[in-house]
Amino acid sequence: xxxxxxxxxxxxxxxxxxxxxxxxxxxxxxxxxxxxxxxxxxxxxxxxxxxxxxxxxxxxxxxxxxxxxxxxxxxxxxxxxxxxxxxxxxxxxxxxxxxxxxxxxxxxxxxxxxxxxxxxxxxxxxxxxxxxxxxxxxxxxxxxxxxxxxxxxxxxxxxxxxxxxxxxxxxxxxxxxxxxxxxxxxxxxxxxxxxxxxxxxxxxxxxxxxxxxxxxxxxxxxxxxxxxxxxxxxxxxxxxxxxxxxxxxxxxxxxxxxxxxxxxxxxxxxxxxxxxxxxxxxxxxxxxxxxxxxxxxxxxxxxxxxxxxxxxxxxxxxxxxxxxxxxxxxxxxxxxxxxxxxxxxxxxxxxxxxxxxxxxxxxxxxxxxxxxxxxxxxxxxxxxxxxxxxxxxxxxxxxxxxxxxxxxxxxxxxxxxxxxxxxxxxxxxxxxxxxxxxxxxxxxxxxxxxxxxxxxxxxxxxxxxxxxxxxxxxxxxxxxxxxxxxxxxxxxxxxxxxxxxxxxxxxxxxxxxxxxxxxxxxxxxxxxxxxxxxxxxxxxxxxxxxxxxxxxxxxxxxxxxxxxxxxxxxxxxxxxxxxxxxxxxxxxxxxxxxxxxxxxxxxxxxxxxxxxxxxxxxxxxxxxxxxxxxxxxxxxxxxxxxxx
Length: 644
Description:
Blueprint: E1 2-8, H1 11-22, E2 30-38, E3 43-51, E4 63-67, E5 70-74, E6 83-87, E7 91-95, E8 98-100, E9 104-106, E10 112-116, E11 123-130, E12 136-144, E13 146-151, E14 154-157, E15 159-162, E16 164-170, H2 177-186, H3 195-200, E17 207-214, E18 225-228, E19 239-240, E20 246-247, E21 262-267, E22 275-276, E23 282-283, E24 299-302, E25 305-308, E26 313-317, E27 320-324, E28 326-329, E29 340-342, E30 345-348, E31 357-360, E32 364-366, E33 370-371, E34 374-377, E35 381-388, E36 391-394, H4 397-428, H5 437-447, H6 451-465, H7 474-485, H8 498-516, E37 522-529, E38 532-535, E39 538-553, E40 556-559, E41 565-573, E42 576-582, E43 590-594, E44 599-605, E45 609-613, E46 616-619, E47 624-631, E48 637-643
Parallel strand pairs: 6-15, 28-30, 29-31, 30-32, 31-34, 32-35, 33-35, 34-36, 35-37, 36-38, 37-39, 38-39, 39-40, 39-41, 40-42, 41-42, 41-43, 42-44, 43-45
Antiparallel strand pairs: 1-3, 2-3, 4-5, 4-14, 6-9, 7-8, 7-10, 11-12, 12-17, 13-16, 18-21, 19-20, 21-25, 22-23, 24-25, 26-27, 44-47, 45-46, 47-48
């Protein structure tokens, strides 16, 4: 038997070439695959095809053929050769009762028996696989087919090979939907069955490890949580400016609440959801943690909210909410604590260190010193230690408001005098007929009423410092003062009657500020040096006094100790000043200033001590004692004193 080689890109291509060359059907070809290579761009296949050698047949020789599965043998005549047969794969050959494994001559009288291979019966298999927690089930269905073989027909020849071919395939019945569901039920799979995948199981090709049922896991109940509406020690953060620079002092800001504000909100955890496994067993969920809202003083529980019942500082200690009316610092105020800012009262049990700031919407009590720091309070301030190189202001914006009131009152008086002066000039034509009212006003302000410019500049500065909520209409009066009294502004007056309109605006502003200003407060210190001390009420110095400081009070300044010292600087009060020893034997300049209805008392004073009452001023030329300065009924400055 010869072997022919065919090459192509596929096996089918090689078979087609061989079939055409040999002029036989593809089913009759016997071939072996010699090589099958795959590369990135193409595939190469090479097969070897067996070709029976053609044997010259004499007419006297016998022949054999296979037709419709039957072997037909013709005997030789006149001494011709007999035909022969040989069994190939899948065929068992018996001749005259004996099994033959090689080619054998046969005659018409030969008893030829062919036994073809037979497969096992067609079968089907269904298996179910459950995971360990009984939450998933997988199905596999396999169909095994049975082949029915027949003897392949061969043309009449002197010799043929017996070959079997698959005549038909017998398939097992495909599982029905009802059968599959019954199998699931038999395995107690009753929950979470995936209907879509059930349909896939009806495929005649079967399925492999297909998810057929899936349980539902329970959803655990969530824990309750608390949303804090104020900063706790764990949530405080440093403030940053627009350039990302960190203010390391901002950590001391104290969050404050007003009455009826919410301190915290309890958020109830979501309810849990039960689950089920694939056999229908209910799976319980885990219960969440329930939180109780515990409260102390200053707050109540309203449903799931903690609500403040008073203004103050919210706190959360030992699992309990409370609202405190004051904030207490049990250490020095420095970079560790940060600046302290709180809307209520503040108590500092240490020293306020250099560069730090205290801001309070209530009162401030400092048990030790204030050293190079700022202290501002809307209420009273008391410093038990020394105040060195610091700014201390009691009364908050009321201090600015009182300064504005003083300047507005003085400005009003000066404008009234200005009106009278303009009237006199116009009546007697003192500056000539060609001058307009604006020119006259400008000349008077530059010569006789220079104080008007000073008061306007003070007011413009203080207006900018005021909170807009405190001074809602400041911009109108500010613009009038700036446009009419500064620089060439007086020339804009068409008539001097416009000055009366400005006085009306000043009266409105005075009434507005007086209505909103708070009760006077008291600032108490032990001793101050190189400091600025301001109070909307009184300043009380209970220790050894002051040195080179500026002290201002809207009511009075009083030194309590008999021999307290006021040495250098400026002390100013609206009503009265009571001092011990003022100035020094070295003649250091010290100014004591009160309003025109005020009084100044000093137990002892040295030269260069200046007493100012209203607009009157007296410079002490020699040491004196038991000093009392005031204006008499005529407006003259009286300074009662005795020489040391």
